[in-house]
Amino acid sequence: MPRMGETVDSGTVNEWFKQVGDQVAEGEPLLEIGTDKVDTEVPAPASGTLAEIRVQEGETVPVATVLAVIKLQNGGVVSVITYREAAARGIAQEMRRDPDVIFLGEDIAAAGGVFKATVGLLEEFGPRRVIDTPISEQAILGAATGAAMTGLRPIAEIMFSDFFAVCWDLVANEMAKIRYMSDGQLTLPLVIRCANGAGVRFGAQHSQSVENWAMAVPGLKVVAPSNPRDVIGLLAAAVRDPDPVIFFEHKALYATKGEVPDSGEVTGELGRASVLRSGGDATILALAAMVPRAQAAAQRLSADHGIEATVIDVRSLVPLDTRTILGSVAETGRLFTVEENPRLCGWGAEIVSIVAEEAFGALSGPAIRITTPHIPLPAADRLEDHLLPSVDRITETVRKALD
Amino acid sequence: MPEVPQSVALELYRKMTEIRLFEKRAYDLFMQNLVKGTTHLGTGQEAIAAGVSQAMNDDDYTFTTYRGHNHVLARGTPMTPVMAELLGRENGLMHGKGGSMHLLDTSRGILGAYAIIGAQLVIANGSAFSARYRGTRQVTVTFLGDGATNIGAFHEALNFAAVYKLPVIFICENNKYMEYTPIGAVTAVPRPAADRAASYGLEPVVVDGNDVEAVYHTAAAAIGKARDGGGPSLIEALTYRHGGHSRADPGKYRPAEEVKEWLAKDPIPAYRAVLLSRGVDEAVLDGIDKSAREAVDKATEEAKAGPEPRIELAETNVWADGGHAWRN
Ligand SMILES: Cc1ncc(C[n+]2csc(CCOP(=O)(O)OP(=O)(O)O)c2C)c(N)n1
Ligand SMILES: [Mg+2]
User: Fold this and answer.
1) What's the rounded Cα separation, in Å, for the pair A338 and B216?
2) The CATH fold of domain A10-75
3) ipTM strictly over 0.85?
4) Which of B134, B317, B321, B324 would you mutate first to test chain A, the one with the most A CBs within 10 A?
């Protein structure tokens, strides 16, 4: 049972569109659920055979209850795991597949990560491949860079993305440019995972959204998953990609849950946005922790104001899926970005500029960026909540703009 | 220390001579405005490049700095592509995209010249880690200046290398100066590299960087130890740059007495004298000098004759697919 809004803890199955034994395709409507606020269709999270329906029509169950089991083509089933479990599973999947994948960072091995997102990796792969490092961010990224240029595919962890500030030389001057400066003599297949973003009351130096720092540097790919399935799929894509990828996990999402296939490889693709909801009145773009907020706002806009919004999870900032974005703006005529980053030079600014240049005629009103103001983040929950784009703020901004 | 076999001795002499003449030519071409931007010459420091490279295996890895022509030539990269790179020509080592400060030649295991002080030190750990992981017995050698011993990356790199006992050798070329400031004026210890070694559980090693055989023996011992799993070494090689820091800098901030003293310790005439005293035929050395002059002339001609890079090259090889697209 998906969470249909921040204050919604349960949902009712209104109708199953499929019977046990039916084939279902990923993304195809599977059932309709209702809450006190809204009724909505839920798409199948994976392709396969509907093996079991556990919650019957008319039943009301808490969020995260397993509603059904889909048997995958290869015999697996879908289960619900946390975003943090997905990180470990994604790394493990790639380490099992490719012995050249190694993983290094602070407290990632014996302790399983400060966010417990890498539990079990040391046990499975041993200290030769899963390496606890000193607090030496430059040494960590330097080692990853040198290993990548000589045949390995390292995954490095920078504990908090804020710490990029102490090793930015390696990211911006070295790994991003070595291939270009050498005119292709070297390739750098490496991934840097980090915990990005706010919402956990860590204050100004442990809460920043710095994806725009990375986006500003030619030679870096930049992704930020919003759900467990994408954590695994995009991590797989990042590890298999031949270029440096900065992988922004969101620390406020680590405890959130989502469905992923129980077995078999989960893969994804860099540079593909995901359309989570379709509506003709507005296009709302969001990233990482802003995705569930944008979805909740869209539900509320629909239920309370009759506004139907398309919600797109941008997922990949570099490469950027402008085709999906421009296509949606062409249909809705209105663009809203929901960005956790401070106002100036956020990813939404780039997208708004692309839309202004290439889809100006399709716009029926101004493109609007909903961001954190240009202010460092305070620690106290009341203050932090005030600055971050909230479901209320997103809903109100869109409603007023479409009035 | 044991005398080296004569074939090795002549090789050391050849490398130093070629580098000296190459750098002199690079300076002249810079003064003629044919080398654009900047250059940082290794004139006076040739014995370190020659001695260390002689102790390395062909498949070992090298990292260097913006003052890196020496090391690249010593590892065997032909002069023409290096010269052409300085001139910004398409027959340059990186087709004009790197320039004087960023020489890189994977065909000889040269994994780059780095212009942000200290970066190469932490990256060198990565190739050392990778070589051990893959079980190849390759050793990584990285060069650094004395000034680099005061940047954080140096200390992170040394600790990291020591903790994991990586097969990596850090060669600090202590030429007494950073750009213009003497290293002694801003460093808490008298020997900028050696006096830090103990912090990382390493032996302090200091060598006369103008004595090419001493450098060779010292490097060979460290490289052999690393290859056999004995971990990293930090070597401080004392030397002096004959010219200024970069471009046309005349180096006037250095006391005349000091310059005079070090010019008298020029590694090339010194080694020539050693070889003659060992009975090497002067004509052989003259022959090496002549070949080196001819090689530099030829490289200069070939570099000058090289075309300017095709404009398309500016837009290639950001990504592994050869392109630079960031959107669909
Ligand atoms: C991080 C960083 N700071 C400053 C500089 C500017 N800079 C270039 S060379 C140099 C002096 C370096 O001295 P040293 O390490 O002794 O090397 P040398 O030039 O003597 O070979 C400085 C300060 C730089 N390139 N990178
Ligand atoms: Mg110096």
Assistant:
1) 61
2) OB fold (Dihydrolipoamide Acetyltransferase, E2P) (2.40.50)
3) yes
4) B317
